TrEMBL record:
Descriptive protein name: Diaminobutyrate--2-oxoglutarate transaminase
Keywords associated with the record: Aminotransferase, Pyridoxal phosphate, Transferase
Residues of the full protein shown: 86 to 518 of 536
Cofactor list: pyridoxal 5'-phosphate
Uppermost EC category: transferase
The keyword ATP-binding appears for this protein: no
Family that this chain belongs to: Belongs to the class-III pyridoxal-phosphate-dependent aminotransferase family.
Length: 433
């Protein structure tokens, strides 16, 4: 039975296992938004493989693309050799890039995970600039390998200068909004402009346009433009990590497009593989200072992932799912703001497109000088469990693990969005009691 499976997993898997702790489900079937467990229960999946499933589970165009490769007799493993499957993926991907980058882009297949592409990006800018240091942001998440960890929030690495990521709620400067973002930008500019700051130009700056794991924090567009002009002025490559924000999720195909910023390097994974493992970096050709073989890896050519990815990218583009994410996301935010008004424990509701966060707080524990109440991780955990009891899968994030994150597929229908929010509202009311 499925309980034996859960028991064996708990015994055999490492103490570091994550989702399986809070979501004791044994999925056996899935389609679109819905997962069915071995116990016969059905769940609405708003975790979507941590933002991977742009088209939901087992979308017909993805299955068809994978089957086509399987049935064609094409080799499934070819290292990084050229194939028609890779050629089609690269063409489709380049068609989605900001035109200024696409016109002059190189692609490095990394892989298979997002963190591998982050490593490649850091190595690329270090090679191209001959510098060592990096600029990264508080609360950032870039992965679990050594280099990616070093640029993630909470890490302590001598080569990384940590800069304040702008956020309206819990603003590090206590002012929030555009003013807080302005202070973050000014601090960054000062470090580079002031010869006595003790900070020299780094090999690159790595940033998320919306921090995902950090608690769904959308950076203001004006701030992204400031980062672009500051880095450009000092010839510092700007690396934008679109691993979670990419492929329409935030309401534009890539999240940097909101600001009009053209990065020097884009780090891509998750949704680009259409639910199979795939990770790449795309970058301005001027950075391509690598010697042949300077970056290798056995699994840089997953043919099935490329085929699934091509189908996903094309489907999102042809069906304008980024626009759909923008309108539906705004509608969902509106309803969540209604919940915020009715529930003092909802401290903040924020997001961009279908990347949504609800921060839970303890209003009674706020001190007289606190600009906002303290985060309430235990309540967030209770809301997650009440959601699960109502057949809704959500994940937590943020620095205090007090942000409930909604990452539904972009194919979400209006009716499904209503069902998700109905269940969430019930769960919130139950957890509050
Ligand atoms: N960058 C960002 C922005 C991410 O959200 C993640 C994964 N949550 C990663 C990098 C790392 O990707 P992976 O887990 O595939 O290594």
């Amino acid at each position: 039975g499925y309980e034996a499976i859960l028991r064996r997993q708990a015994q055999r898997e490492s103490a570091a296992r994550t989702y399986a702790r809070s979501l004791p489900i044994v999925p056996v079937r899935a389609r679109g938004l819905t997962i069915e467990g071995a116990d016969g229960r059905r769940y609405l999946d708003c975790l979507s493989g941590a933002g991977t499933l742009a088209l939901g589970h087992n979308h017909p165009v993805v299955l068809e693309a994978v089957r086509k490769v399987l049935d064609s007799g094409a080799p499934l493993h070819v290292l990084d050799l050229a194939t028609p499957v890779k050629d089609a993926f690269t063409s489709e991907l380049f068609a989605t890039l900001p035109p200024e980058l696409a016109a002059d882009a190189r692609i490095q297949f990394c892989g298979p995970a997002g963190t591998d592409a982050v490593e490649a990006a850091l190595k690329l800018v270090r090679t191209a600039t001959g510098r060592r240091g990096l600029f990264a942001f508080t609360g950032a998440y870039h992965g679990m390998t050594a280099g990616a960890l070093a640029v993630s929030g909470g890490a302590d690495d001598v080569s990384v200068t940590r800069l304040p990521y702008p956020q309206s709620y819990r603003c590090p400067y206590g002012v929030g909004g555009e003013r807080g973002a302005e202070l973050s930008a000014r601090w960054t500019a000062t470090l580079l402009d002031d010869p006595k700051s003790g900070v020299t130009a780094p090999a690159g700056m790595i940033v998320e346009a919306v921090q995902g794991e950090g608690g769904v924090l959308p950076a203001p567009d004006a701030w992204m433009r400031r980062m672009r002009s500051i880095t450009a002025r000092h010839s510092v490559p700007l690396v934008v990590d679109e691993v979670q924000t990419g492929v329409g999720r935030t309401g534009t195909f890539w999240a940097v497009e909101h600001s009009g910023v053209v990065p020097d390097v884009m780090v891509l994974s998750k949704a680009i593989g259409g639910s199979l493992p795939l990770a790449v970096i795309v970058y301005r050709s001027g950075l391509d200072a690598w010697e042949p073989g300077a970056h290798a890896g056995t699994f840089r050519g997953n043919q099935l992932a490329m085929a699934a990815g091509t189908a996903t990218l094309a489907y999102v583009r042809e069906n304008r799912l980024a626009d759909r994410a923008a309108t539906l996301g705004a509608r969902m935010l509106g309803r969540l703001q209604g919940l915020q008004a009715a529930h003092p424990c909802v401290g903040d509701v924020r997001g961009r497109g279908l990347m949504i966060g609800v921060e839970l707080v303890d209003p009674d524990a706020a001190g007289p000088d606190d600009p906002v109440p303290p985060a309430a991780p235990a309540l967030a955990r209770a809301v997650q469990q009440e959601c699960l009891a109502r057949g809704l899968i959500v994940e937590l994030g943020g620095r205090h693990s007090a942000v409930v994150r909604l990452l539904p597929p972009l194919t979400l229908t209006d009716e499904q969005a209503t069902a998700v929010l109905d269940r969430f509202a019930d769960a919130l009311a139950a957890a509050e009691r």
